Every structure is written in structure tokens, then in C-alpha cells.
TrEMBL record:
Catalytic activity of the protein: 8-oxo-dGTP + H2O = 8-oxo-dGMP + diphosphate + H(+); 8-oxo-GTP + H2O = 8-oxo-GMP + diphosphate + H(+)
Domain Nudix hydrolase: 8-138
Any one of the GO BP annotations: DNA replication
Keyword Nucleotidyltransferase: no
Species whose genome carries this gene: Agaricicola taiwanensis
Protein name: 8-oxo-dGTP diphosphatase
Statement: the UniProt record of this protein carries the keyword DNA repair: yes
Catalytic class of the enzyme: hydrolase
Family to which this protein belongs: Belongs to the Nudix hydrolase family.
Protein EC: 3.6.1.55
Length: 138
């Protein structure tokens, strides 16, 4: 048995927004943050007491200015990755329907990318195993 002493588990909820052409939205992490410059799925950490779906809907509104209804969020898979100072557990939802126009509200660069082209967009190590799931789905 492996004992993970004082493991800090961080729950981040993320979303693959899929457009009519089967492309997925990636956002570039800004300079000055951990993993700066890498391309990630929109999402973020939950606030205290927040349900995953509610937190994801909030993050999508804050980051991208879009409104997503909870039934439009379908669970796809999750990432479980050990970073140096914490362990990331990240459910990935898929969403094909939203209201509003995707807008980079935090000045982040955005790209709509076919899953088979994602290898050209450097992603955090936690995300790499997720690409195959999106290729299978789309
Ligand atoms: N949103 C998102 N975060 C990811 C992905 N892959 C991945 O390793 N992460 C990590 C990066 C961060 O450590 C964490 C997301 O936290 P966050 O975006 O809410 O917070 P942050 O690090 O930008 O900033 P802070 O709130 O800690 O100051 O999850 C991904 O695809 N999407």
C-alpha cells in the first residue's frame, strides 16, 4: 500500500466546448501563472461549498461570457495527475450548446482546435491523456 502523507488534493472542473465543426476550445494560460503559455480547457477551482456543475457554469460565464445550462454538461472523463506540490483531480465535461458569444474576458488567447491537432498546442501534463478521449468522441 502507498501512503500519500499530507497529499494536497486540488479539484478543478474543466470543459471541452465543442463547436459545430467538432473543434474544441482551448485557452492559453497567461504569463505569470503556473504553467504559463500552455493550452488548457476552460474551467477552474471550485469555491467553498460549490457543486462541480455550478462552479463550471460560473467559470465559463466569468472567463468566456457564455451561459451554459446544467443539462448541457455531459461528463466525459477525468484527469488525475501528481504535480510537485499538489495532486490534481479534474473532471472533464463536454458541452455543445451554450448561449452568447465566446469572448476572452480575461485577455487569454483562445483557439478552436480539432482533437487530432491538439498535439501542436502544448498542454499541461495532466491534460495529455485526455486528448485520446476527445479524438474517440469527435
Ligand atoms: N482550467 C484548467 N486547469 C488546468 C488544466 N490542466 C491543468 O493541469 N490545470 C491546472 C492548472 C492550475 O493548477 C489548476 C487550475 O487552477 P485555476 O486556473 O483555477 O487557478 P490558477 O492556477 O490559474 O490560479 P490561482 O487561482 O491558483 O491563483 O489546474 C485544464 O485543462 N484546465
Amino acid at each position: 500500500m502507498t501512503l500519500d502523507l499530507q497529499l494536497r488534493m486540488v479539484l478543478v472542473v474543466a470543459c471541452a466546448l465543442v463547436d459545430a465543426d467538432g473543434r474544441v476550445l482551448l485557452a492559453q494560460r497567461p504569463q505569470g501563472k503556473a504553467l504559463a503559455g500552455l493550452w488548457e480547457f476552460p474551467g477552474g477551482k471550485l469555491e467553498a461549498g460549490e457543486r462541480p456543475e455550478t462552479g463550471l457554469i460560473r467559470e465559463l460565464r466569468e472567463e468566456l461570457g457564455i451561459d451554459v445550462r446544467e443539462p448541457c454538461l455531459a461528463p466525459l472523463t477525468f484527469a488525475s495527475h501528481g504535480y510537485e506540490s499538489f495532486h490534481l483531480l479534474m473532471p472533464l465535461y463536454v458541452c455543445r450548446r451554450w448561449e452568447g458569444i465566446v469572448t476572452p474576458n480575461e485577455g487569454q488567447k483562445l483557439a478552436w482546435v480539432k482533437p487530432r491537432d491538439m498535439r501542436s498546442y502544448p498542454m499541461p501534463p495532466a491534460d495529455e491523456p485526455l486528448i485520446a478521449h476527445l479524438i474517440d468522441l469527435l
